[in-house]
Request: fold
Amino acid sequence: MANYKDIKGFHVQSLSTDPAPSLGATGTWASAPNVNTTRTELFGTGPGTAGMIVNGTPDGSDGSQVYNCEVYNGSAWTEVNDTDQRRQDGASAGVTTSALVTAGYTASPRGNSSFTETFDGTTWSEETNINNGVQGRRGLGASENASLIVSAAPSNNCELWNGSSWTEKNNQNTARSGQGTFGTSTAGIGSGGNPYRAIVESFDGTSWTEVNDINTARQYQSGGGTQTAGLIFGGNTPPATTKTEIFDGTSWTEAGDLSIAKYYGAGGGTQTSSIYAAGYTTTAVGSSEQWATASSLSKTILGQVYYNSSPTNAFKVTTIDMPGGTWASAGTMNSKRRNCAAFGTTTASVAAGSGPPTTSNVEEYNGTSWTEVNNLPGVKSSNMGAGTLTSGLSFGGDPPPSSNECYEYDGTNWTEGGDMNTGRHAGGGMGSSQTAGMCAGGHPPNYNNTEIYNGTAWTEVNNLNQGRQLVCGVGTTTAALEIGGDPAPAPNQTEEWDGTSWSSKGALSVNVYANAAFGTSTLAVAAGGLPPGTDTTANMRSAQFWNGSSWTEVTEMSTSRASGQGTANAAATAGLAFGGYDPTASPSENTANLCEEWGATGLTNKTITVS
Reply:
């Protein structure tokens, strides 16, 4: 017997605007009135319709610093009482009726300033000096009586003002100046910072914990909002950027751009209402922009079909647009390498070891350029990696008998970890941190065994269905993919790990192995690779997208490569493929230092067309 759904079909919603993933994603920047005094390296606070800016310098020099303070009422900037001390690149917290400023650099007396002042909406009052007054510190907090001042390199210390005294709080994990901060003194976020960082840390009132990186590494940006609904905007990448990113407490998403790229501006507010005033482009500017979101939200739902009544008058579907991604040239590595240990994200990647020749050399990528950092404790080739820039692993690799060694990385130094049970190289490395790493497959011979690392020791778990080498892995110790590999007859196979066992999944659409891969067990990209047989030129620029059940060809890379490595953001909508080799190139060029960056839109609303 037919039911109502079979007879009548599905109801399709009619929406006046396309759905968005969050209210913050509907936000746009609009021009606001210029400030009265053009300046840069200023600081400030407040929501979009009640912001405040303090001090700064019209030309970047300490000799021209100003005392001026201005408040914004949503339509105009008004001069209010000056501070007692003038400074630049300082810290501020609170709101326009209860604000605090401290630290920074002052011309009189010349040097870093510990001088602290509070504002009650009318008058500035001198308070007890901060313990570590240095330029580049930033603040967060709901009022002057609960203001947290975060670190500035080289110190990573943080201090809390309670209205009468300063108290040292637990240090940030990574010292950096010019962060984008938002939230309160018990639930705050510090993002990015000098030099061009993508690192983000979350504060719970006691301790700092590293969370997902921002998509665009930057310094001297501004921020606003709460720990679970924040945003950052502007900054220097370099150059100055218009990029805005919103934060939902877990991940960062790019939102509407500023109209003017600048940094060293001031402002803040909420994820729905913020102000960004003055700052620096190629010179100090007095322009300001106001951020506002839609009054209501229809939330995106994967697979939703709806009718857009304005302005497109079209049927649409919300889908994942990974196949619409493109590749762009990224920063060139300092050393050519292939089959190295790789971990991190697109804007905070690590490449460690490999060659040829076999090396202990390590490089970090900040989203723009590669920098050599501390070497591995030993030379390694075809080693594997897992984790993040500040909690990473390198394990296995040639030469024997040290092919079972594991090294842990904290963002600065390498230390010896627990040895693997089975020494190997050219396996698949996966995992979210140095306390949750995973290795499957490898050589010699073509292993099928899998091991998981808990930060101390490696434990054998269930085997792959087929042993293989020159594989790539993505995901975590509870949800992972093992992709491709050698030998035949099934180098294009995929296996999925559910935290307990491996199961065979869809084959790659292009039959290659030794890919660079990045992503998760449900959204991944495999790029490049070697085809089996003697034809080494075909498909080496191929890129393939995994949607959780099958592989689809997507836009090819610009350069051929095999045995490259990959890293990505949490959603795999931004990825990096680096290193590798092209066997058709001359011997002197058979390892690559070229990098390409993948960008895709993730969830998107597409018009349904009928052909």
